[in-house]
Design goal:
Elements lengths: L4 H8 L7 E4 L5 H8 L6 E5 L2 H13 L6 E5 L13 E7 L1 H10 L1 H6 L2 E6 L3 H10 L2 E11 L2 E10 L7 H6 L1 H5 L3 H22 L4 H25 L1
Parallel strand pairs: 1-2, 1-4, 2-3, 4-5
Antiparallel strand pairs: 5-7, 6-7
Keywords: Methyltransferase, Transferase
Pfam families: Methyltransf_18
GO molecular function, one term: methyltransferase activity
Length: 231
């Protein structure tokens, strides 16, 4: 099974030997890959929609993996029992939905050992939620694919020290590692924000001034993050 760069990076965060529940499995590609590579002994592919789950079943059957990959129709973790798997994967969905899934079934989340998360939006909100609700980020990665940037993380139960604003926006582990993909993302963000600022400087009106103030704050945070690459 060949995975996209994004999905391969997500799968690479799974601890070897861990059983997995893949939430929003879509085609079932990640569970199939984890079994094929001997990373996971078994997996549960879960999705809220019947169509993606049917596609996943077809792919699983084609590879003769029905004994080790089960499919379940599920809204988030609702169809998973406490202790059934070690790891939860939630990739390719909005940050608000990731939080709702983590919040929705506390008995299940408490029984899980690790969480592989790849929010497509609101990542600052996700990081803040994790740090305030007893989750510790132990690894982060970021890939660029087809011109888009995808940050992701592995978290476990534990106490997280307070993040500063740059860490919430861009990821403490990524900044500590001076991750090259994050650097490219920061440079792109800086260039885009500077261009928008130039345009706003030529405009009048209270709304433009307000946006300019917000933009200056955003640029300052981007610069603060870039400073960590110069230390």
């Amino acid at each position: 099974m060949e995975l996209s760069k994004r999905l391969h990076a997500v799968a690479s965060l799974v601890t070897e030997g861990a059983s997995v529940a893949d939430i929003g499995t879509d085609h079932g590609y990640i569970p199939i890959y984890l079994i094929e590579k001997g990373i996971s002994p078994r997996a549960i592919a879960m999705d809220i929609n019947r169509g993606p789950l049917k596609r996943a079943k077809i792919h699983i059957r084609e590879r003769g993996m029905e004994e080790v990959i089960e499919t379940r129709l599920s809204d988030g973790l609702s169809a998973l029992l406490p202790g059934e798997t070690d790891t939860m994967i939630a990739a390719g969905m909005g940050g608000g939905l990731v939080i709702r899934i983590l919040d929705g079934n506390p008995e299940v989340t408490q029984s899980l050992k690790e969480f592989i998360l790849q929010p497509q939006s609101e990542i600052r909100k996700v990081r803040e939620y994790l740090s305030r609700n007893g989750y510790l980020t132990v690894a982060e990665d970021m890939v660029e694919e087809d011109g888009k940037f995808y940050p992701m993380m592995k978290v476990v139960h534990g106490k997280e020290s307070v993040h500063d604003e740059a860490e919430l926006l861009y990821g403490r582990k990524l900044l500590e590692a001076r991750h090259p993909v994050l650097y490219r993302y920061l440079m792109r963000e800086k260039g885009m924000k500077q261009k928008i600022r130039e345009g706003l400087l030529t405009q009048g009106g209270s709304r433009s001034r307000q946006r300019l103030m917000e933009l200056e704050e955003e640029l300052a945070l981007t610069e603060l993050a870039l400073e960590r690459y110069r230390i």
